[in-house]
Amino acid sequence: MHVNDQRLTAGDGTPIAWHATGTGPAVVFVNGFSTSHFFWRYLHPALATRARCITWDYKGHGASGPARSAGGCTVPALVDDLRRVLDAAGVERATLVGFSMGCQVVYESWRHIPDRLAGLVPVLGPPGRVLDTLLRPVVGPLIHGSMRTLSPPAFARSLRAVRALMALPVHYELGRALRLVGPGAGRADIRRYVDHFSQVDPETIRQIALHANAHSAEDLLPSIRVPTLVVAGGRDTFCPPRLALGAHSRIPGAELLYLPTAGHTGLFEQPQAVNDGIVAFLARQGLIGPAR
């Protein structure tokens, strides 16, 4: 797959990496926490012949630099980074396709740049407080508590320990046991995530996670007035389906793609079902061009 080889500068001076492929109506992919463009490796090709597909990396992720400030890690600041990507790509309006925490960025965009949005596709993610429901009642609150209370050096040390655990040959089986990895997700796809996670900037991801867990775009849902498709997984332990279904019910005219057996790695588990549902929705709404 491509790399994010273009550069722009965020409001706090952080270098942001991005990439654009194809021609036609613009579709911008908005990553989940600690992920990069590889999470779109199945959906991206399905859209690249029908749209101008744009990927980018959050601060501290992938090819982007570590955040220059804590203020640059808030959800509104990530929306501003997205706006700068649109400007750099010369895109007036785009459909946003977000995964996991990226759904918060997608929804929050409606508050700050509604005139730049043609459609929204939040995939397997909540509208707010992204850690509150992760494997409750223990794992998500435990992660949030450690991020909130540990000093940056102590958190960096704990992250190194997590990375060492993830680097073990049993990382795939461990992810399956914790129900973070669905049975249909291939080992190679999970390996890409593990490799990327080993490179993210500790303080940046700590700040992004803390700000994301203090943020909610719930108040925006009833006011959304662009075509919206909510994608929910029936076995998602990160974003339980009730959250996605609740968001769908509050957005006027929103459509739902419900995958009853998909977990949080649904983009890897059931790529054909995801691709078919999203492509059909975007085509029906005139948000992508004809198949080429």
Describe the protein's architecture and organization.
The chain has 292 residues and is α/β, with parallel strands linked by helices. It has a single domain, classed as Rossmann fold, CATH 3.40.50. The chain is built from 11 helices and 8 strands. The chain has helices at 43-48, 75-89, 102-112, 139-149, 152-166, 171-177, 187-197, 202-213, 241-250, 266-269, 271-284; strands spanning 6-9, 15-21, 26-30, 52-56, 94-99, 117-123, 229-233, 255-259. It has a 6-stranded mixed sheet. Helix 3 links the parallel strand 5 (94-99) and strand 6. The longest helix is centred in the N-terminal third of the chain and has 15 residues, at 75-89. The chain starts with 5 loop residues before the first strand and ends in an 8-residue tail after the last helix. The model has no long low-confidence stretch (mean pLDDT 90).
- Number of distinct beta strands: 8
Order of helices and strands: EEEHEHEHEHHHHHEHEHH
What is the CATH topology assignment? Rossmann fold
Classify the beta-strand content into a percent band.
15-25%
Helix/strand/pairing class, anyone?
alpha/beta
Helix content estimate:
25-40%
Tell me the CATH architecture: 3-Layer(aba) Sandwich
Radius of gyration from the CA trace? 18 Å
Low-confidence stretches are none
Mean pLDDT reading: 90
CATH class, please?
Alpha Beta
CATH H level: which superfamily?
A: Alpha/Beta hydrolase fold, catalytic domain
Question: How large is the count of helical segments?
Answer: 11
Shape: globular
Within the largest sheet, what's the order of strands? 1-2-4-3-5-6
Main sheet makeup: 6 strands, mixed
Ends apart, CA distance between termini: 20 Å
How many structural domains are formed by the residues?
1
